[in-house]
Amino acid sequence: MTTEKPQLVTNGKRVDGRGLDELRPIKIEAGILKNADGSAYLEWGSNKIMVGVYGPREAFPKHVQDPERAIVKCRYAMAPFSSLEEHGRSGPNRRAVEISKVTKEVFENVILLERFPGCEIDIFIEVLQSDGGTRAAGITAAAVALASSGIPMRDIPYAVSVGKDGENLLLDLNKLEDNTSDADMPIAIAPRNNDVLLLQMDGTLTKDEFARGVSMALKAGEHIVALQRAAIGSKYRKE
Ligand code: CDP
Question: What does pTM read for this prediction?
Fold first, then answer.
């Protein structure tokens, strides 16, 4: 079945009225789950994501323990009601396993794991409603949940995606744009020194588009980081 590609940009405006380098509205709240050591709830456009963090606690089963450092476990899951597409029937699918893996690797690079030998840190990312960019939104929320748990980190990462439609680079693709654009590049950054912690690419970008895309992500990062810090700050002010 072939479906016609929708027009994603008309007179410099996107299907949801945004400019090319405009983020969707983002709201982040830290410390909302009573039983987790750290937590965050994030709304990013129509994405709704809850993150719970546990640990550091003794790694289980024992054979997974690393005597030198803590291990990170991460589970990204989409609730069965989170989109119109079919999923959630029989546990994690291939996509969820991939997103869990790349997210785990982001946090392995910023948590001070060597301080907690033999322990594990668990990150549970539950996508309650999805509309494109959930891996970026999940990483952004998980960073806030980890920081709110007090787990020591070198930095608080954020993530966002950049895509391309024809000549146009687009910041923060929604699902329609994600599914029909020519390229989609999620990127996670440690803002203190702009280390890239995740970079994936669906489609292709030229060298110049890649460089411009990274600049767009870094600029958007200033706003995302401010929201993350405000969420963490207001959690501590409430306590
Ligand atoms: O969410 P993200 O952009 O990181 O991942 P994706 O694999 O590029 O998926 C894009 C979007 O498609 C998701 O955010 C969901 O809205 C939707 N999707 C879905 O509804 N069901 C799936 N099994 C996979 C994706």
Answer: 0.96
- Give the model confidence (pLDDT) of 31-49 as tens digits: 999 999 999 999 999 999 9
87 CB under 6 A from ligand 1? yes
Ligand 1 lined by 85 (C-beta under 6 Å)? yes
Domains of the chain: 19-238 (3.30.230.70)
Q: Is 135 in the pocket of ligand 1 (CB under 6 A)?
A: yes
Please tell me the distance between residue 133's alpha carbon and the centre of ligand 1 in angstroms: 7
- List CB contacts of 75: < 8 A, sequence separation 6 or more: 92, 100, 122, 123, 124, 125
Task: Please tell me if the CB atom of residue 219 comes closer than 6 angstroms to any atom of ligand 1.
Answer: no
What pLDDT sits at residue 84?
Answer: 73
CB distance 119 to 57 below 8 Å: yes
Report whether 77 contacts 127 (CB < 8 A).
yes
DSSP string of 12-25? TEETTS--TT-PPP
- Which residue has the least CA distance to atom 19 on ligand 1? 85
Ligand 1 atom closest to Cα of residue 202: 8
- For residue 168 the two structure tokens come to 């146009």
Question: Per 3-state DSSP, what percentage of the chain is helix, strand, and coil (rounded to 5)?
Answer: 30, 30, 35
Region 90-108: mean pLDDT is: 91
Please state, rounded to an integer, the average pLDDT across all residues of the chain.
Answer: 95
